[in-house]
Design brief:
Number of strands: 17
CATH superfamily of the largest domain: Response regulator
Structural class: alpha/beta
Shape: globular
Distance between the termini: 48 Å
Strand order of the largest sheet: 12-11-13-14-15-16-17
Strand content: 5-15%
Helix content: 25-40%
Largest sheet: 7 strands, mixed
Number of helices: 18
């Protein structure tokens, strides 16, 4: 079914893209966005606000509307206090006796049983802290001293928030994409798609089928209305090719031909930056792609990751090396990695981290080539007193066999090396510590057993366990978030709902805990340094507690 190819869908996408561009091109909307998101007035001065009851002042970024009303403009929850939506759809909506009587999806904190705002009463609310009927607003709402020009800009921007129509959403379908870069592992690609395709198929197997229009569940004033339009999920696979410089144009073409609400999971190789940047520009949520080298930018809103991957491993190793004392503390740390692989990014991140500890680094790259080639030669070049860090794949680790283990400390990447299955020769195991940004196998077994059972029942081959478990976890979070959105299919609201839900997740797969708040894009933040067992049947030994660098 290619419902997304109808001209109306393309016109919708074009209109939304133009609307997004308009915010950037229109000086009035740009000024309003700066006030809402950054707390910066048109003059460049910081926004000032005062809470009436306490007299507590807030200024600049701390006063920005986005912190409470969020990027979506649909509000949030502060403990037991619900922050109301400030999207114009809700502020200007005609009065309704109860939430179930209005034709808008329910959001926490909305007040349907009041007079609709006008530009004049909204300006009064922002300046004086009274609602459209003259009643005092909640104590968390500051009173802002805005000039007429600033007020006009802010109100104009509020009218762009939480649009009624978004790409990839029809009365019967929700469209999603998964993105695969050309350097992604083909085995992991098939493993990920096996999980995604089966999860989507089961989401679409409800017996009553999709409903063509919204239905409300509210029957009394005590029951909050939530729309219950059942929509099929449609998965689109955006397979990229060529060099990273070519990907933005390909992504734009995919998005124009197949408008989607969000990107779910995905698989990358050594460079995800063009994908991350595209999703940020397009205001397209990108939820938990499978990456060894994610884009480490917390300020960007639209991409969420489970872990920093090798970048987190570099922090774990750096913290250990920074605490090392003794006669090797002044010797350069030597890093061995294969050029063009993920280990190059890990090595670069470790070098930057060690600068803070005053430690120097010597890189020993292995030329790109067949697996296992050049490893022994690299070890000869890396001879010295300083710690040795190996950013190597399993085949390269296997090439260590027959080479005497050095007496100095040795570290290795768990993500690249195969975690507890890393083929490290026995003579190296007692000298080597592995960065391990996951929970220990025996501690995660219960959390992983559920998705593994799900795979087994559905006869999905488990060929890349961590990738498949992470993909299943991402699908579960998406499903749970959509269940809480009440048909308010706003991309920013989807990200915000996942931020709120992820910390309450019990089945967290490979991770002992997950959490996200505003300004955090990585849900798991720590890891271990572990020692591999000498015997193949043994257990990993954690060299200390879970560490959050």
């Amino acid at each position: 079914m290619k419902a997304w190819r109808v001209p109306g869908a393309l016109l919708l996408l074009l209109g939304l893209c133009l609307a997004s561009a308009a915010v950037q091109a229109d000086p009035l909307l740009t000024a309003g966005e700066a006030i809402y998101r950054g707390g910066v007035l048109r003059s460049g001065a910081p926004l000032d606000g005062v809470r009436k009851d306490s007299g507590q002042g807030v200024q600049g970024d701390a006063a920005a509307c986005v912190h409470c009303h969020r990027n979506s403009g649909l509000g949030s929850q502060e403990g037991l206090y619900s922050i109301p939506p400030v999207s114009a759809r809700y502020l200007y909506h005609p009065r309704a006796a109860h939430a179930e009587h209005q034709d808008l999806p329910y959001v926490a904190g909305e007040h349907p049983d009041r007079e609709p705002y006008t530009d004049v009463t909204l300006a009064r609310a922002i300046r004086e802290g009274v609602d459209s009927e003259g009643r005092p607003l909640g104590y968390l709402m500051p009173r802002f001293a805005l000039s007429d020009d600033d007020m006009v800009a802010l109100i104009a921007y509020l009218k762009t928030l939480a649009p009624a129509q978004v790409p990839g959403v029809t009365p019967t379908l929700l469209h999603f994409a998964t993105i695969v870069t050309p350097d992604a592992d083909p085995v992991k690609r098939r493993a990920m798609l096996d999980v995604l395709e089966r999860f989507f198929a089961e989401k679409n197997s409800f017996p009553w089928g999709p409903t063509p229009s919204m239905q409300t569940s509210g029957r009394t004033a005590q029951i909050k209305s939530m729309y219950m339009a059942n929509r099929h999920w449609q998965l689109h696979v955006w397979q990229l090719d060529g060099a990273p410089a070519d990907w933005p144009a390909q992504l734009q073409r995919h998005f124009a031909e197949e408008p989607v609400m969000a990107v779910i999971s995905g698989l990358g190789g050594t460079d995800w930056t063009p994908v991350h940047a595209f999703c940020q520009r397009a205001h397209l949520p990108c939820l938990f792609p499978n990456l060894e080298v994610p884009v480490d930018v917390d300020r960007d809103f639209y991409s969420l990751y489970f872990s920093r991957g090798v970048l987190l491993e570099s922090q774990l190793i750096a913290q250990r090396l920074g605490d090392t004392a003794g006669d090797v503390a002044d010797a350069p740390v030597q890093q061995v990695y294969r050029s063009g692989d993920s280990g190059e990014a890990g090595a670069h991140a470790l070098a930057l981290a060690l600068q803070g500890f005053g430690r120097s680094v010597q890189d020993v790259p292995i030329p790109a080539g067949p697996a296992g080639s050049g490893v022994r030669e690299a070890l000869q070049r890396a001879a010295g007193r300083g710690p040795l860090v190996l950013w190597l794949r399993p085949d390269d680790l296997s090439a260590l066999a027959g080479t005497p283990a050095p007496l100095r400390p040795v570290f290795a990447s768990g993500i690249m090396g195969g975690l507890e299955h890393a083929p490290v020769p026995a003579e190296w195991r007692q000298r080597l510590l592995m960065a391990y940004p996951f929970d220990l196998p025996e501690r995660r077994v219960v959390r992983v057993d559920y998705p593994l059972g799900w795979f087994r029942i559905r006869r999905i081959p488990v060929v890349a366990e961590q990738v498949q478990v992470d993909t299943y976890l991402a699908c579960g979070l998406l499903s749970e978030a959509l269940n809480h959105m009440a048909d308010n299919f706003v991309p920013e609201y989807l990200v915000e709902r996942i931020e709120e839900l992820v910390g309450h997740r019990i089945l967290t797969g490979y991770y002992p805990r997950l959490s996200l708040t505003q300004g955090q894009r990585f849900a798991s933040k720590g890891g271990y340094l572990v020692q591999l067992p000498v015997a193949a049947s043994g257990r990993l030994t954690a060299m200390g507690d879970w560490v959050v660098p």
